[in-house]
Automatic annotation (TrEMBL):
It comes from the Bacteria. SUPFAM superfamilies: alpha/beta-Hydrolases (SSF53474). Pfam families: Abhydrolase_6 (PF12697). This is AB hydrolase-1 domain-containing protein. Gene3D superfamilies: alpha/beta hydrolase. Residues 22-250 form the AB hydrolase-1 domain. It comes from Azonexus hydrophilus.
Amino acid sequence: MPAKTPVIHRYPAYQPSTQPPLLFVHGGYSNAALWSVHFIPYFQNLGYDCYAVELSGHGSHPADRAHLDDFGIDDYIADLAAAVTSLPVMPVLIAHSMGCLVSQRFLEQGTAHAVAFLAPVPPTGTGGTASRFALTMPDFFAELPNAVNGTASEKTMRTMARVYFSPSMAAEETIQYLPLIQPESEKAVAEMLTAPFRIARSRARIPALVMGGSADQVFPASMLFFTAASWHARTQIIDGAGHMLMLDPQWPDAAGKLLEWLESLA
């Protein structure tokens, strides 16, 4: 079971604002710290109170990390629900990858001011990606344990960069960001592989944005349509960006497009 109160990192706006707060939801094999590199300072400077939830078993809490494989998608949904409830007003959810799936499932029972899905897990799950990687990038599965356990070699770095980051990402930046990758729950990974297609008629009817990178190797931009269609959402493709939109050299473009959408909600 997840902790009764999830870890929520708070980053107040640099100046008072009436903007809705932003609640960032990280993806699989990562943690909340990836948002604080570029995105959170960017939005703090523009007057947004920012929060980042640490899903159970993630981050730098060893007691929770020891039980990582006990947690599944339902536990992560409970974390997000608790985080939303704890905030003073209804937030805009900004989710990445697995965090998009968690947010969509949460919105079947809860609500938010709006939601942005960045590089979302497709409605049919991750099985297609796993099959494609097995055929085209088998080194990924061999090197992933080295990446998440801190035993990365030069080959590990090249493989992770090819899968997760923009082709224009400098090698030294890949090294800098590798510590943000961590193990993921085997239970959650298995649940995403076989995620059934869901039609949620009672889902919250809120504004939605679907964003992805044109160079995303994990969930190609052509797959964004399926998430966008189910949410009647606007689609935004960031030219040259990979799966890690918030870290890639193209992050200012991604943040700027996200800002335009946030301002359109007023």
